[in-house]
Amino acid sequence: MRHVYLVTFFVVVLGVSILGLRGTKFTSAPMDVFPEWAFPGMKHQPKPYAQGTSAFFADGRADRMPVAGAVQRGMLRDDEHLDHGKTATGAFARGFPATLPVDFKLLERGKDRYTIYCAPCHGAIGDGNGITKKYGMGATPTYHDDRLRQIAEGEIYQTITNGKNNMLSYADKLVPADRWAVIAYVRALQRAQTGTAADVPAAHKSELGLK
After folding, report:
1. Is the pLDDT of residue 202 over 90?
2. What is the CATH number for 148?
């Protein structure tokens, strides 16, 4: 039993001697447990560092611009309807992408994004009477005229993406799914302005005092 204590004590002392105490700042290079000859290139790799230098390139910079046509991971945007608001023939798509369920969750997201980015100009109900109108923005259209009621959803998507007239692009603020969420909420606003008592389900008419 005595030998067990001695061995344990020796292992602890050896471990502390090699690894040091927690919080200790080392001033020398770390110990190489695995020799370079056993694992060549694993530790001392000729890699560039951010904002560092590189003798490989003529200008001496390690940072490089992306090559032409490079696409950021997850940004391929190869679904014509979802990512561009168009059909395979290039026409503005009507309706919503099949891969994007139009449900209450989407409308809630659309309301949130609309309130932040759209309501200041287009107004809370989409009538063009946002707060910016008080400061001279008088050309904001209402969503409730026939032209915008009949416009294809894909055209609204393109307007959000690229901007139109005085409206700038919101592509840097709204990802494709959020643009469709805003469009769904705009359609809900339009539908709300044309609703009648006949649209209320029979089970809920009493709540509104309807017969």
Report:
1. no
2. 1.10.760.10
d(CA 126, CA 203): 29
pLDDT tens-place string over residues 68-109 = 888 888 778 889 999 999 999 999 999 999 999 999 999 999
Secondary structure of the chain as H, E, C letters: CHHHHHHHHHHHHHHHHHHCCCCCCCCCCCCCCCCCCCCCCCCCCCCCCCCCECCCCCCCECCCCCCCCCCCCCCCCCCHHHHHCECCCCCECCCCCCCCCCCHHHHHHHHHHHHHHCHHHHCCCCCCCCHHHHHCCCCCCCCCCHHHHHCCHHHHHHHHHHCECCECCCCCCCCHHHHHHHHHHHHHHHHHHCCCHHHCCHHHHHHHCCC
In this structure, are residues 6 and 17 in contact, taking their beta carbons and an 8 Å threshold? no
Write the pLDDT tens digit of every residue in 24-63.
Answer: 676 777 666 666 666 666 666 777 888 899 888 899 999 9
Of 72, 66, 92, 70, the C-alpha closest to 81 is: 92
Q: Which residues contact residue 91 at a Cβ distance below 8 angstroms, ignoring those fewer than 6 apart?
A: 154
Residue 30 lies in a domain: no
The phi, psi pair for 24, rounded to 5°, reads -70, 135
Write down the pLDDT at residue 83.
95
Domain count for the chain = 1
Residue 210 domain-assigned? no
